[in-house]
Every structure is written in C-alpha cells, then in structure tokens.
Amino acid sequence: MDPLNLLDDRISELERKVLGTRGSAAASLRGDTEKLSVLEALSHANQLLNSALSGREKALAVMQRISELNRYMDPTFEDSTMTCEAKLEIILARERELRQDLSSLEQAQRLVSNVLDNQNAISSMQAVSGLSGQLEKLTLITIDSVQGVEALNEQAQDLFERYNSIVKELTRAFMVLDEMVSAEEQRGKPKKKSSE
C-alpha cells in the first residue's frame, strides 16, 4: 500500500472521529453544512482569524509575538538564558546553605530509620494507640470540669454583684442617717444669744 494513501486514510479516519459523520464543528466555522476536512477547517479558521485581526494593530502585534511570549512563560526560560558559569556561581554562593540542608536531611533520615528500627518505639506507639479510650474518658472529665468551673464562676459573679449592691445600699443608708444625725445635732445645740 502506498504511504501517501495510508496517510490520507488515517487523516480521513481522524476527521471522522473528531468531526463526526456530518462534520458539524468544522461546518459551523464556515457557516454551511457541507463536510470539511481537518485541513480545510484549519485553513478556514486561519482566514477568519486573519480577517478578525486586520485593522487591529495592537492585537496583531500581540499575535506576532506569541512565540516570544510562550518562550518567556516557559518555566525553564531562566535556565536557558543563564550560562554554565553563572549557574556555577549561584551554586557556589549557596554551597553552605546546601550543605546544611543536606546535613539536616541526613540527620532526619537517620532519626526516622532509628525510630522505625527500634522495637521499643514501635511497642510504645502501639501502647499509646491503646490508650485512646482512656484519653477520651479524660477529655470528657475535663470538659465536665470546665463546665463546672464556668458555673461556679457565674455563681461567684452573682454573689459579688449582690454584695456590691448591699454595700451600696448600706453606704446610702449610712449617709442618710449621718445627715439626719447631723441635722438633729444642729437642732439640739443651744442657740447663741445675739445680745452677748
């Protein structure tokens, strides 16, 4: 079989799978219902795009710079612009920090392996997991205690308010009595004679 015919058959099969039997997606671009091939649909979309951009210089300038924008948006863009010497200088400048990070990671790995290898640690973890029921009971007791303390605080607050109101009333009563006693004392004093 001829490779060109094989390629043509594969493209036709792809068009059939992508566009369906009626080619409605490509036909909607053109505005008619006849079946379009993928190449015709792409060509027609390109023509529509070009006609939409004609007369719009700013949009056209952006479209012409899309490849440049894609290059700037590439995550490896910075690496591609740096020379090997610049990368080496950055690594050497951060050497102390990188060595500290490596040392910390090695220490953490040793600690994890020691804990996992230590049978006592494993049995301790299993014992801790067995104590979860007791922890739940203690949590409930603590919650009840906190609620009891809150109730006692409210009662104490009420008692302080009552005490303050009683002291206030007694103070007011003593002030009234003091005024009354002072007035009686003033009345009971002998009056001085004006002739003397």
TrEMBL record:
It comes from the Eukaryota. One of its GO terms (biological process) is cytoskeleton-dependent cytokinesis. InterPro entries: DCTN3. GO terms for cellular component: dynactin complex. This is Uncharacterized protein LOC113206185. It comes from Frankliniella occidentalis (Western flower thrips). The gene is LOC113206185.
